[in-house]
Amino acid sequence: MRCRTTSSLSLTSNGSRVTVSGATEKMWEVGGKYRALGKLQLEQDVTAFSKPIGSLKAGKLVLVEEVVQENITSMRLRVKAETGRLAGRSGWVSGLDSQAEFTLDLRNHLEFENLMRSCHSPSQSSSSSPTRDPVSEEPTRDPVPE
Prior knowledge:
Blueprint: E1 10-11, E2 17-18, E3 24-25, E4 33-35, E5 40-43, E6 52-56, E7 61-71, E8 74-81, E9 90-94, H1 111-119, H2 122-125
């Protein structure tokens, strides 16, 4: 099976992105793992500027648990810190910062794993019959007399 390769960062006009499989989906999907692009303030509630829980440094991974979007500029994400001192804690972050820049990378760090799983059909990986090597199975030839 051949796998399609397209840019995982292609965006459509409505704020969706085109994944490596060619599917169109929201910028951040529930269950996806994303990297913080800058310092993130984890907050207790979905409302912006609610009680702070703590902050994550740029580069830390978070798992998106819920997405609440009123419009393209007002998006809140409930995330669980995967790395750092807040690992395992959940809180709310804004999808965009005050300069309208994304707070999380758009690339789902689980997407590559999912793509690799889909590129290997179950029959190939669970086959109990030995694989055949076409090179070693070529018929032997008698040497050509000179």
